[in-house]
Amino acid sequence: MSPRRHLFLLLAIAATAWALPATAQHQHGVSSENSEPHAIALLQAAVHSELAAAETDHSVWTYRDHDKTADKDALYDVVDSPQGGVRRAIQFDGHPVGPDTRAAETQRITDFVRDPAAQAKQHRAGQHDDAQARQMLLMLPNAFIWTVKGDSGDLTTLTFRPNPTFHPPNMEARVMGLMAGELIIARADNRIRTLRGSLTDDIKIGFGMLGKLRAGGTFDVERREIAPHIWQITETHVHIDGKALLFKTIGQQEDEIKSDWKPSTAKTLQEAARQLDAG
Question: Assuming Cys at both sites, which of 103, 105, 195, 222 could form a disulfide with 235, CB separation 3.0 to 4.6 Å?
Answer without folding.
Answer: 222
